[in-house]
Write a structure and sequence with these properties.
With about 850 residues, the chain is α+β, with helices and mostly antiparallel strands. The protein contains 29 helices and eight strands.
């Protein structure tokens, strides 16, 4: 800090502490008003990969084949499913759900069409005669049971193989306003990405995004209320049946409750731990209260700022409160330790020579000495979090910005608040008792001095092992593994997996090959329509709805069902199988198919045709549900295997085959985040290295400083690889966080090392001096961070548990590597030059 800035800082903060505190309290009071406005978002919009072509295609396909936004109620009655009492109970539940204002329809075994109870002919199917449901008077329940268990449409879909469990599909009404706002925003975003926007269009996009953002919040809130209503309804029926709720909406609602739990519980939990740690470390009420108030004002201002600008917290950024508390506490501990050391010097050395050194001077010198290392620790931590900003995943970007702003606020606020409060207090009475922490750090220092080269060798071996583990890292993970087995999400997904054909949808859409004349393969209607085609209507060719192509679809369908990780498969092949059943095992002729497509009853068309055939019949869709509990599930490999089969074995042109669905989007999200993090981590290390060169003014010293932190990142990622812990939306940020926090230790240690080396003139004595001073502060902060992160192990969200434990492990590695490897490298390489003779 320049002399002018130092004089200004002393005049405002040190000499006028009451004024400085007044400014801080005004700021805190203002943002505290907006803390209640903090909102959460766990919707699918919050975890999508922006500018992803697969996302664009997914949205387009949803317009054709309908939304996959629905709830699944898994229903297992205590009595036989087809008994009158169970069916009456099911009907009552269905009707109550259907009466909800937001519900469009509820599909159950009661209302789907039956064609084999008794069997109907092809002509009856076309005319709609003889098609029954379970609610049709006189329907034979035993025949219906047999049809449900054997039907290619219903088995392992609406009903479990053992006939004990069924599913209710709750379909919600489309919010046309939401759809219109979403489409408007997306059109402008696409144009911006493709050709850019004019200033007027850019303003329109900004307005559209703000409008969508605000309306989206009301939609999510309404959806959460719908979930509460559905659960209240289900609770009324649990006495006669076992009920589980599933579906995207339910996951969103539960994720929000997890976030709320994590923010509240772990914020309070970490505060409690920090309180205990401070009492143990410093044994002084002043340091406990001052440190806790520093943390609280940082969190209140940041949370209030998020509420003020309506910046929503997502699953990924839900740990920002815990991180901000820990990083702020790390800063304050370094300030406290430095102040206490200067105070000891004041009493031990300067008491006779400088008896007039007062509290203001002591505080000023503390802040003056710590400004440079604390500023660079804040900047390097910010640089590490900035690696998240280059991601295409909005919540990851938001997390990076939240931590960047939060760290900047914490540094600025506490370099005003901490000294202003301290100036108003009397100097602390120095205790001459032996410090157990100092004994530990001195023992580590002594060991490192005596075994410097073996320490380096062991660290090299650990780095090699870490590199081998990193080579085994995987991005693929099962969504069900994100939740504890006691949660409704886990239990519902497991039940749907085992009894109702899987959970997460994966679609393959196949276009017509434009090089083939569909009319040559499949004449639409070779004779005059006996049912009277309307005048002016045109005959249409059907690329997919003919015997040849339907046979191909059936072959693909059977292949997909043979894959262990795939559950229920739905496609035109189901209709083909049903048609064969009612046509004595024979595929109808093409002209019969053309007639059926035109005149089949709506309920049959809605069940067997529309979800799998585009209106012009030039595109078909095969949809499957993946078995999330399958231990061999690897989405990317599975998608590529199916695509290869369609292209190489079935002979479709590669450009006509389109994988889509939530499974594809989630796979793209994880692999994109992995690529962006791997690519940007190199940039982060280079950036930090350049900052070290500026800070330490020696290239070799900068290289030495960064090596222990590379070891920490390598160790934690290597451990994940060796233990088979996959990277996910939470754990993929561990490397950035580890580097960002761990470099703080190196900066403080080397800054103190440079100062002490001038005094001691030998590397060994300087290591002893540093381990006895700054080593204690590093130990305090590392232990605080480690245990603080470990508290996250009590979350209901498994990635948060991994995140907490692995980050804590990384912090311990960073502590030991800075106290051992860093000291050893300083003694061996002598980056400050040779020792004076």
């Amino acid at each position: 800090m320049s002399p002018l800035l130092l004089r200004l800082y002393r005049a405002i903060v040190i000499d006028r502490p009451v004024v400085a505190l007044g400014l801080v309290f005004v700021l805190v009071a203002f943002f505290a008003l907006y803390v209640p406005d903090l909102k959460l978002d766990a919707s699918s919009e919050s975890i999508i990969l922006e500018h992803d072509e697969a996302l664009k295609y997914y949205r387009a396909s949803r317009k054709i084949y309908g939304s996959d936004d629905f709830l699944i109620v898994v229903y297992t009655p205590h009595d036989d499913l087809f008994s009158p009492s169970s069916l009456a109970h099911l009907k009552k539940l269905r009707d109550e759900l259907a009466r909800m204002d937001s519900v469009q329809a509820v599909h159950t075994i009661l209302d789907v069409p039956l064609v084999n109870s008794p069997k109907v002919s092809l002509l009856e199917l076309k005319d709609g005669d003889g098609i029954r449901t379970l609610e049709t008077p006189g329907t034979d329940r035993e025949l219906a049971r047999k049809e449900f268990l054997e039907s290619p449409v219903y088995q392992n879909n609406l009903i479990s193989p053992d006939g004990r469990t069924t599913a209710l599909q709750v379909i919600f009404k489309e919010d046309e306003t939401y759809t219109a706002l979403l489409n408007k925003r997306n059109r402008l975003r696409e144009k911006e990405a493709e050709s850019g926007l004019s200033s007027e269009e850019a303003a329109t996009l900004e307005s559209a995004e703000q409008t969508f953002h605000e309306y989206h919040a009301t939609v999510v809130e309404a959806e959460n209320k719908d979930i509460e209503v559905v659960r209240d309804i289900l609770d009324k029926y649990r006495g006669d049946a076992q009920l589980y709720l599933g579906g995207a909406r339910m996951i969103v609602a539960d994720m929000i409750s997890f976030i709320e739990h994590d923010i509240a519980t772990f914020g309070v939990g970490i505060l409690g731990f920090l309180l205990a740690a401070l009492i143990y470390f410093f044994r002084s009420l002043r340091w406990v209260l001052l440190s806790m108030s520093c943390c609280l004002i940082s969190v209140v201002v940041m949370v209030g700022y998020l509420g003020f600008v309506d910046w929503r917290v997502t699953v990924i950024s839900s740990n920002f409160v815990s991180l901000l508390l820990i990083i702020t506490m790390s800063l304050i501990i370094h300030l406290i330790v430095r102040y206490r050391l200067l105070n000891e010097v004041r009493y031990r050395i300067l008491k006779e020579e400088a008896p007039k050194v007062d509290q203001k001077t002591l505080v000023f010198h503390t802040m003056k000495e710590m400004t440079k290392p604390c500023f660079y620790t804040a900047i390097t931590t910010i640089v590490a979090f900035c690696s998240l900003i280059v991601s295409d995943i909005r919540p990851v970007v938001d997390f990076g910005w939240m931590m960047t702003i939060g760290i900047a606020l914490a540094f600025s606020l506490n370099f005003v608040y901490f000294p202003a409060v301290l100036v108003l207090l009397k100097p602390e009475k120095v205790s001459m008792r032996t410090d157990a922490t100092k004994a530990f750090t001195m023992a580590v220092g002594d060991f490192t001095i005596r075994h410097a080269k073996p320490v380096v060798l062991v660290c090299v071996v650990l780095a090699v092992l870490g590199g081998m583990g990193i080579a085994q890292l995987e991005v693929e993970n099962r969504f069900i593994d994100h939740f504890k087995s006691t949660t409704e999400i886990y239990q519902g997904m497991e039940l749907v997996d085992t009894k109702l054909g899987g959970t997460i949808p994966l679609d393959f859409v196949i276009d017509a090959d434009e090089t083939i004349d569909a009319s040559a393969e499949a004449p639409s209607d070779p004779f005059e329509d006996p049912f009277g085609q309307e005048e002016g209507a045109t005959e249409e060719t059907s690329y997919w709805f003919n015997g040849h192509r339907l046979t191909q679809v059936e072959t693909i369908h059977d292949y997909l069902e043979s894959i262990p990780e795939v559950g229920k498969v739905l496609s035109l092949a189901m209709g083909t199988k049903v048609l064969k059943q009612v046509n004595d095992g024979r595929m109808p002729e093409d002209y019969e198919l053309a007639l059926l497509r035109k005149y089949v009853p709506e309920e049959v068309k809605n069940a067997l045709l529309d979800p799998y055939l585009s209106p012009d019949a030039n595109q078909t869709r095969l949809t499957m549900r993946l078995i999330e509990s399958a231990p061999t599930l690897k989405r990317k490999e599975l998608i590529e295997r199916i695509r290869r089969y369609l292209v190489e074995d079935m002979g479709f042109a590669e450009t006509t085959v389109h994988p889509t669905g939530m499974a594809v989007l989630y796979s793209h999200l994880l692999h994109s985040l992995y690529r962006s993090q791997i690519l940007t981590m190199g940039t982060v290390f280079v950036s930090i290295l350049l900052m070290f060169i500026v800070l330490f003014r020696r290239i070799l010293l900068a290289i030495v400083a960064i090596l222990p932190n590379l070891l920490a990142a390598c160790a934690v990622l290597g451990l994940m690889g060796w233990w088979g812990i996959p990277l996910d939306i939470m754990t993929i940020t561990i490397a950035a966080i580890t580097v960002g926090i761990a470099v703080d230790h190196a900066i403080h240690y080397i800054h103190r090392f440079q100062v002490e080396f001038v005094r001691h003139q030998t590397y060994r004595e300087t290591v002893v001096a540093c381990h006895g001073s700054i080593g204690r502060a590093i130990y305090y902060t590392a232990l605080t961070i480690t245990v603080g992160f470990s508290i996250l192990a009590f979350s209901n969200f498994i990635p948060t548990i991994y995140f907490g434990l692995l980050t804590g492990f990384a912090m311990m590695v960073a502590l030991m590597s800075n106290l051992t490897l860093l000291a050893a490298l300083l003694m061996i390489l002598k980056p400050l030059g040779p020792e004076p003779t």
